[in-house]
Amino acid sequence: GATFICWYGCLVWPDRRSMMGRLLRSGWPLAVTILGVTLWRLAYYGDPVPNTFYEKSALDAYWSAGAVYIGLLFARYPALVVIVMFGVLLSLSRRVGNVLSVRRRALGFTLTGCVFLAYVAHSGGDFMFARRAIPAIPLLLLGAQPVLVLLAEGRRTFTGRALRSAGLCVLLIGMAIPLPVFSWWADAEGRIGHVAHERSIYPDSAMAIREAQGRALAEVLEGVESTLLLEGGMCILAYYSGLPSLIEGAGLTDRYIARQPLSERGRVGHERRVPESYLRDRGVSFIVLRTQNRP
Q: How many CB atoms lie within 10 A of CB 261?
């Protein structure tokens, strides 16, 4: 995110001769913030990036899964395609964006949002629909903002205002009402490829069950020194148990597991396996499974 902010700043300043001076004057608070956060991460976590950076193999290309992930975003919200087109139009067309600074801002916002989406696609997206793409949405909207304002203002004639207002209403409705792509294309487990809709995977009823199970587990193991391994999907139970020594099997919260090599690609964030030697070293006493039919 910080890299994109700096890159965007280089695009928007119209006077490039004074750009470095402006960067030095206005960029130092950002630099100090980034440095402070990085030092805190190194002191607390021992690493400048989050654990999920390694667990989700952020630098490894996984375009096939990423294309499905980003494609579902635009399929569910097709108005976003129009938003991106507006941003590109504004940045390239002098007729629409006749002020150079406005065109550069549109270019900066639109390109930054698209580059972020490309990064998400490169790393394979995520297991849960759209959540990794959320930072790009306001950037794309800001890139298209002047065009949206033109639509809202309309022409002086009644016909021109009616047409532009109708187009704006259709666009806003398209953003507000998503298409039910998961009802159309999801498999029996509620997924499209490796992507799931979070509300269908974790409904309120399932959350209540996991909460009750976690609290019951805490009562059973109260005063017992033990380490538990939890299968994927059981993190809600782990949270409500409040137990002090837990291992999340996919490695989302475990530094050692997150850095294990991948044998094959699958669901992003759920691809790694726990080495048996690690379980012995940690002294795992119990394994909490999602189902009862496993040995």
A: 6
**Which is nearest to 234 in space by CA: 202, 266, 282?**
202
- Whole-prediction pTM value? 0.82
Give the 3-state DSSP-derived string for the chain, with helices as H, strands as E and coil as C.
Answer: CHHHHHHHHHHHCCCHHHHHHHHHHHHHHHHHHHHHHHHHHHHHCCCCCCHHHHHCCCCCCCHHHHHHHHHHHHHHCCHHHHHHHHHHHHHHCCCCCCCHHHHHHHHHHHHHHHHHHHHHHHCCCCCECCHHHCCHHHHHHHHCHHHHHHHHHCCCCHHHHHHHHHHHHHHHHHHHCCCCHHHHHCCCCCEECCEECHHHHCCHHHHHHHHHHHHHHHHHCCCCCCEEEECCCCHHHHHHHCCCCEEECCCCCCHHHHCCCCCCCCCCCCCCCCCHHHHHHHCEEEEECCCCCCC
Q: How many CB atoms lie within 10 A of CB 95?
A: 7
Say how far apart CA 201 and CA 187 lie, in whole Å.
13
137-178 confidence digits (pLDDT tens)? 988 888 887 766 666 555 444 445 665 666 667 777 777 788
